[in-house]
Amino acid sequence: MTEQIWSSVSDAQLKKIHWAADITCAKEHFARLAIACFTEADDRVAGTIIDRLGAEHALEHIVSRTDPLLLAKLSFGETKDTARLANKIFEAQQRWNLRVSLQLVDTALDALETFRAQTVLPSETSYSRGLVDLGSGKPIVLFVMGRNPVATFQQSTAIIGARNSSDYGERCVREFLPVATEAGQTVISGGAVGIDSLAHKSAIAAGGQTIAYLAGGFDYMYPPENKQLFEEIMLTGALFTESPPGSKPTKWRFLKRNRLIAASCKSILIVEAAWRSGTINTAQNALDLGRNVGVVPGDIFKSASHGIYRLAKNPDVQLIADKSDFRALLGIGELGAISHDDLPIGENCQRVLDALGSGKKSVKVVAAEVGLGELEVEIALNTLETLGKSARFRDGWRLSHRLKTNL
Amino acid sequence: MALGLAKAISMFGMSGRVVQVEAEVGNGLPGFSLIGLPDNALSESKERVKSAVQNIGLKWPQRKLTVNLSPAALKKFGSGFDLAIAIAVLATGYRFRNFSVKNTLFIGELGLDGKIRPIGGVLAGLLEAAKNGIKRAYVPTDNLGETRLIDQLEIIPVANLTDLVEKLGIEVKLRKFQSADPSVETNAIEENLNIELAASSNDQRYRPDFNEVRGQGTLIRGLTIAAAGGHHVLLVGPPGSGKTMMAQRFAGILPKLTVDQALESAALTTLTGRPTLLATPTSEIFDPPFSAPHHNASVSAMVGGGSPIPAPGAISLAHNGVLFLDEACEFQIPVLESLRQPLESGSVSIIRAAGVASFPANFQLVLAANPCPCGYALGGLKRCECNHAQKVRYRSKLSGPLLDRVDIRLRVGAPGSSEVSEGSSELAEQVIQARNRALSRYKSENWTHNSAVPGQILQQRYPIGKSVKLLDAARNSGKLSMRGFERAYKLSWTIADLNGHDQPTLEDVSEALYFRGSDSPLDPSSE
């Protein structure tokens, strides 16, 4: 019964996806595009079903409104949770059914053609590895305009901040940003006015690559006054969004967009943020994902500093007061781009790292767990400490804060 | 006028000068004057020589006798000139058939009865004499042991003056030598002194061995690395954790000395006036020396000193071996600081009014220290009771420049398990293998181990490849200083040599980073 959906999709429709490598690939692009049209961003039920069944089958079930109980069993197998899961799927179907229409997909495809935009699958290189950390909440598909660049997670740094930026904040961006571009980092931001715009502009001026994650579809690029900037970004970098054409940049979508900025970069620098702001929301997302978060201190009497101090109270957040602080945040040294994570750690180190958790363990316990000698374990722990992956205490070792939240 | 000549040697530190002894019997009232800047011991030589000559039944010149020690402007010390003076004086009245003044040297002190007594520094003296073209030397029988090491010149042991003049072919008949001391055997020369000098494997003497140590695997590994690369070591730990025990066993895994090194070390020992060590040389002389001065040692005791002739200090006695400073923080600061220059140059110069004495001092330093005055700051059986100021004062004893030269910093804890270590002989074998690897790498240069290679040159000519990123990371994170980076670099090569790798692997570098330890090893809060 579910096969009928693919018989109603014409070859002409699939051919519109000319950037796909082959017909199977085009089907996946089509399926993900369709589901993206039917669901709202960060729909974890849809995400989970795609992860479990594959995008094409997921689309079939969504379009044919498969019985929730059957779908739960198909996706998760028979468990004692089946009833609860079925209920969730039922609620989700209530949302989806309002939108399910292949006509919508066709319109979106035509719009993509107009904007010369493409879709990017999670398996493709321009889909940042960092986004995978979002789990079932990762974008079902990304829409891209521009050069469709390879944006490696390790080499990405986000610089974000307040829209109503001050001279001080802009000076901070000009001070720190060249450090990132010189080290070959891609600068990621949100394309908003203020700090975000300046980050993009400075990165382009410094000859670096820059990427903007937008909240709405490409027919609602926001803010409109940055049209010129977006054109410039596309020349060297790219504009990404997870919203299909036709999606307006609503407040909800901005909040969801923030998680993409947080996930796609390894380090994030925050310059000016008010007590309640989207910037704080992005920072929280980044901390939850275990990203390196740095804040630039500001004037305590200005509201644009209040969010900064709110963040700075978190022990995992680093204060960035000079270029070497920023280099440390990026994990690069004085002498050039040395990213610790580029270094393959030895076999012993990997085994010991796997055994560490957020609770402290003595060398003896770790040695027993991984089946290595105590000396080998001590050497490995010492190396991991150097690489910032483990933390030493008088009574044992644990993962360092930076990694803890990642697991 | 009758003239007699003989040669002796004057030592100052490790350097010596051949002294020509001239005796002249001329007209004038009978008398004996000794000139050429002799010290007190040497001035009294007149009485000893005269009595000895008369007591073996030879005639003493009954006219004016003048003995000159040339070069006359050089100050001369000690009783070792007695023999040369006696022969020079006798040569004025007697003829010797087999005596060539030019190439023959006499060393020894005379007893009043004609007995020839041993003196200190014979070995050092002979080595210098050989350099000055001496081909044959007569030495006291009791010094024979140490002289057995030399093959550059002919050594003839003599027990008494009768024996000596007979060997020189005196043309008068002498009566048998009678010692005034009945306990002394008249013919003390044993011909059978040919000792096998090669380090014999069937050596049964007890040496402290690592196989007596339980559960200190980390420490022993660290010491093995130190031995392989010639790195200095610091051991930090609470009292009773076995620091001293480990250090004593350390010398046992160092490579045996070469003949040249053994000679050099033995010569230094004889200069302290301790001939006893070498009365009968055994393969022991090939063991690297172990010098462990007590912590109340003065600067002079440490680097050498004394008057009028400076004697070598503890660091020179550790030449080619191990200098172990137990309770390093209890030493006086000037004593510890005096080590810095010898650590760099491998020798020490002692300046006295009479001249400058130079002693080699190429030693491997092993420091043992408690982390604080009570010893328990790093944990242990008790709680530390020291206050902050006490700890700071205690730690400041080991200055940065001194610690910088120490490549390996080990924290000694309570024994982790009851596992018995590998024996010293197996470890020594690993050390030799590692050193051979280093030697073949540096075959075009004259470096014998990694720590001898200048850091910059090592990094340029012998890069460690991709694994260097780990050291870069450590430097960038502030865990290693610039110098620490250089030291860890050397350690990486040593560990690669020990593990049989052609280039340090990531694991080797990891291990190097671990054994390099922290920049302030006594401070528990530094990690």
- Summing up helix and strand content along with how strands pair, one would put the structural category of chain A as alpha/beta
Greatest interface and its participating residue counts: A-B, 30 and 24 residues
**Mean pLDDT rating of chain B:** 85
Distance between the termini of chain A: 41 Å
**How is the largest sheet of chain B built, in terms of strand order?**
11-14-17-10-18
Number of strands of chain B: 18
Tell me roughly what share of residues is in helical segments of chain B. Answer: 25-40%
- Compute the number of helices of chain B: 20
Low-confidence stretches of chain B: 186-201
Order of helices and strands of chain A: HHHHHHHHEEEHEHEHEHEHEHEHHHHEEH
Q: Mind describing the biggest β-sheet of chain B?
A: 5 strands, parallel
| Total DSSP helices of chain A | 19
Assembly state (oligomeric):
heterodimer
- Gyration radius of chain B, to the nearest Å? 28 Å
Low-confidence stretches of chain A: 334-339, 403-407
Percentage of residues assigned to helices of chain A: 40-55%
Characterize the largest beta sheet of chain A: strand count, sense, and whether it forms a barrel: 9 strands, mixed
Tell me the number of strands of chain A: 11
Task: Output the structural class of chain B.
Answer: alpha/beta
Question: Which features does this protein show?
Answer:
heterodimer; A: 407 residues; alpha/beta; nine-stranded mixed beta sheet; two-stranded antiparallel sheet; 49% helix; 12% strand; disordered C terminus; B: 527 residues; five-stranded parallel beta sheet; 20 helices
